[in-house]
Amino acid sequence: METATVLPAAIPATEMTETPSRRVFPYHLLERPDDELVDRFLEAFGRVLEFTDYKPLLDSYRRSNTKCNRCAVACPVLQASGDPKDIPCYRTNLLLDIYERYFTLDGWFKSRLTNAFELTEEIIDEMGDIFYRCTACRRCTRVCPLGFDHGLITRLGRYLLSLIGIVPKALQVSVQEQLEGETHNTSKVPRAGLIDVLEFLAEEMEEMLGVELEFPTDKVDRDYVFFCAVSDYLMEPDTLMGNAAVLYASGDWDRWTIGLCNYDGINYGLFYSDWHLENIIKQLVSEVDRLRGRNILIGECGHASRAAHDFVPTFMGRKAPPVLNFMEYTLDCIRKGRITLDPNVITERVTYHDPCNIARSGWIIEQPREIIRSFIGDFVEMTPKGSDNLCCGGGGGLVSIDEMHEFRMEIAGKMKAEQLRQTGAEIVVAPCANCKKQLKELVDYYELPCRVMGLHDLILQAIEIPGGISPMERKEQAALYAI
Amino acid sequence: MEAWLDFARGPLFAFTFGIMLAGLCRQVALQIYFLSVNKGRRLKEVPWMTMVRDSLSWVIPIRHIEPGTKIFSIASFLMHIGLIIVPLFLLDHVVRWERFLGLNLPAIGKGVADILTLLTIACSLLLLAYRTFRARHRMVSGPMDYFLLMLLLLPFVSGYLAAHPAINPAPWDVMMLTHILSAEALFIMVPASKLAHVVLFFFDRISAVHWQLRPGAGDKVAEALFGEEAKI
User: Fold this and answer.
1) What DSSP state is assigned to residue A412?
2) Which of residues 102 through 141 in chain A touch B, CB cutoff 8 A?
3) Would you kindly state where each structural domain of chain A is located, as residue ranges?
4) Do A267 and A280 form a contact (C-beta atoms < 8 A)?
5) Measured between CB atoms, does A276 come within 8 Å of chain B?
6) Cα-to-chain-centroid distance, residue B100
C-alpha cells in the first residue's frame, strides 16, 4: 500500500547507496554521504554535546552500563532476528564507547595507554544499519534494571547520523516537504486536494448518516484545531468520518476547525532529529496561533499525539496550547452522555493494539478500552498489552521506509503477527496511522483472518446521529450494498 | 605480616574508602549540577513521583522477573543482596564500621553471613558463566566486565576461607590480607567503573528528564555545522 509521497518510489537495487568499502544500508539515502565521515561524525557529536543536554545522560549511562543483557528478552526485533547486534545495550554501547573515547578525559587517557576503541567508517556503517533496525518502541527500557532508555539513545544516534547525511530518504524527503515545501505536509497533499477530500467526506457522511454538513476549514476562534496524520486524508476516510461524526453528534461542530496552511500532525523529528522535531512543532503551533485556536486536537496517530503532547510544552513553554488526543475527547463525550454508541452494531470479536507512542511512552491505555467496552460486547485483550505491548514492527519511522518492508514483515513485526493470530479477533483496532499501515501489511503478508481498523472507524458505525439515520438502519443498508 | 595487616586495615582502608566516597559524591554532584543548570525550570514538568515509584519497585524486583531471564535475574538479585548485606552487617565488619566511622550497625549471625557469602559467590560465578558461554552476553561484554566480576568474587572467597580455617589452604594472615586488599581495590573501582551504578542508578532512570529537550538547541547545532542557511 502506498501513500502519495510519504514513501519514495522504489529505487532499483543497483542504485542503492554503496561504496566499495561500505555496506549497503537497509534504506535508501537521498545523497551519497561524503567522505571523511569519521571526522564529520565527531564534529557533529561535539556540537550536539555543546548545545544540547545529552551530556549528563551519556555520563550517567557510560558510568553505570552494566550490560546485563536483560533487554534482550524484551526486544521483539531481537527475538525474531536472533542477531546479537540487535541487543539494545549493544547498540547503546556503540554510542557510549564513542562518547567515552572522544569526549571524556579518562577515555582520552585510556586511548593513550592502551589499544583503545577507535571510531572507524565501518562502525559508522554499523550504526547506520542497527540504529534503523530498532523501532524505538522502548519496550527494553521497562525490563532494564537501570532503566536505560535505549530508545532515546537510538534517537540520539540517528540524530548524529542525520547530521552527516545518513538518514533514510523516505523520512528526509517527507520532512523537507513539511518544513520547506509548498504544501507543508509529508504527503504533499495540496490545499485544493484537502478541500476536495473534505467535500468528498462530507458527501459520504451525508449519504451514510443522513445529515448535511460542511467540514469547517480555517475558522478562527475555535476550541479545537484538528491535526491528523495527513496520510489519513488519503488512506483512512472512515477514521476521519468517525472523528467528524463524534464532533457532530456531540454538538461541537462549531467548536473545531481544520487549518488550511498546516494540517499535518506527523512529526518524524520525534524519530531522528531535534531540529526537525522542534521546527515541526513550531509550525504546528503557529497554525493554531494563526487561527487563534485554544486546543490542539490530534487524530488517531500515536507519534503525532506524543510529539505534540510532550514537545509543544517543551518547546513553547507557557505559550503552549493544551494537546488532546481524539480518543480522550471521545471518551469525555461518552462519559458526559453527549454521544451515544449503539452496543448492538459491532458483533465481531475485537482486539486492541496499544501504539507504543501513546501507551508505553504516553498516557493513553485505559481510555480506548473504556470506549470499546461501552459499545463492543466481544472484546479480547492481547497478551502482553498496555505499556508492555509489542510494537507493530513499524515504529520509529520504519513503516514509511518501503525498502524495509521485508524486514518489517519477517523480523520487526513477526511477533506481533503471531500475537494477532492468537487473539482470534476479527477486528484489530489500532488508533495510529503508522501502526494501522504496518498491521494491514502484516495481515496481508501472514494471511491473518482479521481486519485492521481505527477506533473511530467502529465508532462511525455505531454512533447515534441526532436527526440522522440510526446505526442499525445504517448497518442494514451496508449489508444490502454488500449483497 | 601483622604490620601489613594493620596498614591495610588502617590508613589504606581510610584512603581507599575516602576515594570511593569522594568519587561517588563527585558523580552525584556532577549529575545534579548538569541537570539543574541544563534543565532548570523544565525539571518541574517531569513526573518525579512515577519515576521514584518505578525506581523503588526495583529494590525487590520480584515483579520484574521476565520469562527468559528468570535464572539470570534471580542470580543477579541474590548477588546484590549478599553484596550489600555482608560487607555492612557481618559482625567483624560491624566492629570495624564502629571503630572507623562510629556507626552502630546491627550484626547478622555467622550462619546467615556464610549462606549469603556462598550465595554471592555462586551467583557471581553463574553470571560469569553467562558472560563467558552465552553468545548474547559475550557480545556485550568487554574485558572490564569479566575483571570486575572476578574482583568482586575475590573478597568474598578470601573472606570466607579466612573465616573457615578448616578449608583454608593458605595461612590466615595471607588470606586476610588478600581479603582486605581486594575489598580496597573494589573501593577504588566503584566510582571509576560501571560499579558507579550504586549511586547513578536513580540518575539512569530519569530518562523522562532527558526527553525534555532544550529549546533552540537543534537550530544552534545546525547553524554551527552548516551555517546560517542550514538545511538538513
Assistant:
1) I
2) 106, 141
3) 15-167, 191-331, 350-482
4) yes
5) yes
6) 22
CA neighbor of A222 nearest in space, from A310, A333, A330, A296: A296
pLDDT in the model for residue B100: 87
CATH for A350-482, among 3.40.50, 2.40.300, 1.10.8, 2.60.40?
A: 3.40.50
* Of A336, A345, A178, the residue nearest A268 (C-alpha): A178
The residues near B44 (Cβ < 8 Å, ≥ 6 apart) are: none
Establish whether the linkage from the previous residue to A343 is cis, with ω within 30° of 0.
no
pLDDT lower than 50: segments of chain A: 1-22
| CB of A316 closer than 8 Å to CB of A240 | no
The pLDDT score that the predictor gives to residue B229 is: 66
Question: pTM of the predicted model, to two decimals?
Answer: 0.92
Contacts of A363 in chain B (CB under 8 A): none
Q: What is the ipTM of this complex?
A: 0.92
Listed residue (A272, A282, A238) closest to A48, CA to CA: A272
Phi first, then psi: give them for residue A326, nearest 5 degrees.
Answer: -60, -30
Topology (CATH level 3) of domain A191-331? Rossmann fold (3.40.50)
Q: Residue B49: give the domain boundaries.
A: 2-226
Identify which of B69, B207, B221 has the shortest CB distance to residue A73: B69
Cβ(A44)–Cβ(A163) below 8 Å = yes
Tell whether A43 is within 8 A of chain B (Cβ). Answer: yes
Q: What is the pLDDT of residue B35?
A: 87
Indicate the number of domains in chain B: 1
Express each pLDDT in B67-102 by its tens digit.
Answer: 888 899 999 999 999 999 999 999 999 998 998 888
Q: Indicate whether B148 belongs to any domain.
A: yes
A140-171 as b/e: b if 16+ CB within 10 A: bbebbbbbbbbbbbbbbbbbbbbbbbbbbbbb
pLDDT for position A111: 86
Which of B27, B219, B232 is most worth mutating to test chain A (most A CB atoms within 10 A of its CB)? B232
Tell if the CB–CB gap between B66 and A44 is shorter than 8 Å.
Answer: no
Name the class of domain A15-167.
Answer: mainly alpha
Residue type, A60: S
Q: Do B210 and A54 touch (CB under 8 A)?
A: yes
The domain spanning residue B175 has which CATH number?
1.20.950
Contact status of B218 with chain A (Cβ, < 8 Å): yes
Domain A15-167 shares a fold with domain A350-482? no
